[in-house]
Amino acid sequence: xxxxxxxxxxxxxxxxxxxxxxxxxxxxxxxxxxxxxxxxxxxxxxxxxxxxxxxxxxxxxxxxxxxxxxxxxxxxxxxxxxxxxxxxxxxxxxxxxxxxxxxxxxxxxx
Length: 110
Fold this sequence. Notes:
Number of strands: 2
Helix content: 25-40%
Distance between the termini: 36 Å
Largest sheet: 2 strands, parallel
Radius of gyration: 21 Å
């Protein structure tokens, strides 16, 4: 289960069990698609139309902070393109929070 969806089901990782019920008939499957997907349960109608029940918390926030805060104890690494930087990340040559620069290239047409 995606950790951002935990509040939708009052779920956590403290050892309690969580039951899932599966629709069996084609009609029940269609009804579940319309009414029970997380995308239809993300807003709290009691608090207003655009009051989201889904918000990053705990691990998601810590991970986001870690990934976006550059580790300035490392040297800045320069790349010619985003693809080159991603390849270096996949190979383990840089970490997610290694400070990098990417040389500007020609503007791309959309």
